[in-house]
């Protein structure tokens, strides 16, 4: 048995720990928040992450800074996130590859969604086919005609095997009865944009938002979006549904923290980013770049990820991917 004096000290120490933890949670954040974007600077995911974090930090006593850590199809940066102290001061950006490609292929030891706590889904974007001005192609119909007249010659750039755009191009070849020259590019869509600019590619598949810069400049043109809903920004880009085909693919932005991050910190992050998401500044910016605002909170996003994986993995099995 402990002496009464020692008991009193233990009780006081325990009480101090509890109070200290409560104060720490109430004071969150106590330092700047690190937002890891697992793609190089300049791509669509990077732009969206920077925009919403710039607005979100206005609601906090500390700043949010973006760090680009690319590699291993997003695993390099996200493993750094999951290995960080689970206190809410490190957040990671997940895209299609983080949720589908990596878990499907079990490509990187140590990478697992089980090591993460989802905070929210912010946006979703349909994939689209964008053509280079050097290609001489101006419409979806002309692209199909060129591919049928020249099997294996029309150069289409996509992310690596297992990615959403790669899955899209395989499905397109089957739907359209064509054979493209599929060229994969590691990293973000910025590499494909450069290839479209130089004429190295005839076409590429990613979101219209990813290619907004070269579309605006006239160096590239969207010829079809792989969706059934008309894009409100790019009203001149038809949906593939309007062309008589049913194919819907795309990506998204999800924010997550390390597993075991305190619920209070996750709630603060979710509320802060939701306020930024709802702002006129962010919504207007999304409309300008053609990205769909598509919020899901922490309570919903985990279930959505599970449903997406089940659906996509089944399709991959059918296509032997």
Could you give the count of β-strands? Answer: 10
Q: Strand pairing plus helix content: what structural class?
A: alpha/beta
From the alpha carbons, calculate the radius of gyration and give it in angstroms: 23 Å
Give start-end ranges of low-pLDDT stretches: 16-24
- Most strands sheet: 10 strands, mixed
Organism: Meridianimarinicoccus marinus
Pfam families: TctC (PF03401)
Protein name: Tripartite tricarboxylate transporter substrate binding protein
Signal peptide: 1-25
Structural commentary:
By secondary structure, the protein is of the alpha/beta class. The longest helix has 24 residues. 42% of the residues are buried. It starts with a helix and ends with a helix. Strands 1, 2, 3, 4, 5, 6, 7, 8, 9 and 10 form a ten-stranded mixed β-sheet that branches. Helix 2 packs across helix 9 and helix 2 packs antiparallel against helix 10.
Fill in the keyword field for this structure.
321 residues; alpha/beta; 10-stranded mixed sheet; 10 strands; 20% strand; Bug_dom1; signal; BUG; Tripartite tricarboxylate transporter substrate binding protein
Summarize the structure.
The chain has eleven helices and ten strands. The protein is an alpha/beta fold and 321 residues long. Strands 1, 2, 3, 4, 5, 6, 7, 8, 9 and 10 form a ten-stranded mixed β-sheet that branches.
Outline the fold blueprint.
Layout lengths: L3 H24 L5 E5 L6 H13 L7 E5 L6 H8 L7 E5 L1 H10 L10 E17 L7 H10 L5 E4 L5 H13 L4 E4 L5 H9 L4 E5 L4 H5 L3 E6 L24 E9 L4 H16 L1 H10 L2 E5 L1 H21 L3
Parallel strand pairs: 1-2, 1-3, 5-6, 5-7
Antiparallel strand pairs: 3-9, 4-7, 4-8, 4-9, 4-10
């Amino acid at each position: 048995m402990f002496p009464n004096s020692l008991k009193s000290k233990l009780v006081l120490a325990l009480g101090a720990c509890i109070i200290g933890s409560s104060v720490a949670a109430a004071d969150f954040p106590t330092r700047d928040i690190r937002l890891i974007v697992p793609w190089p600077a300049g791509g669509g995911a990077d732009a969206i992450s920077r925009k919403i974090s710039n607005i979100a930090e206005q609601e906090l006593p500390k700043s949010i800074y973006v760090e680009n850590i690319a590699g291993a199809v997003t695993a390099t940066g996200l493993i750094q996130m999951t290995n960080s102290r689970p206190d809410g001061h490190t957040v990671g950006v997940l895209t299609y590859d983080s949720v589908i490609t990596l878990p499907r292929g079990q490509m990187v030891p140590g990478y697992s969604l089980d090591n993460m706590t989802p905070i929210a889904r912010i946006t979703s974007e349909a994939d689209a086919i964008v053509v280079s001005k050097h290609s001489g192609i101006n419409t979806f119909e002309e692209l199909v005609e060129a591919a049928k007249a020249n099997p294996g010659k029309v150069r289409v750039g996509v992310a690596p095997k297992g990615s959403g755009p790669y899955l899209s191009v395989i499905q397109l070849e089957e739907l359209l009865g064509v054979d493209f020259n599929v060229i994969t590019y590691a990293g973000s869509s910025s590499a494909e944009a450069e290839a479209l600019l130089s004429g190295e590619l005839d076409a590429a598949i990613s979101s219209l938002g990813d290619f907004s810069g070269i579309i605006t400049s006239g160096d590239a043109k969207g010829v079809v979006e792989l969706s059934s809903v008309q894009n409100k920004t790019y009203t001149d880009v038809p949906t593939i549904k309007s062309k008589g085909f049913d194919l819907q693919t795309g990506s998204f932005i999800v924010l997550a923290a390390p597993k075991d991050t305190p619920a209070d910190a996750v709630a603060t992050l979710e509320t802060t980013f939701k306020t930024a998401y709802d702002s006129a500044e962010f919504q207007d910016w999304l409309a300008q770049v053609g990205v769909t605002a598509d919020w899901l909170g922490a309570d919903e996003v985990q279930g959505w990820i599970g449903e997406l994986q089940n659906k996509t993995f089944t399709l991959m099995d059918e296509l032997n991917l």
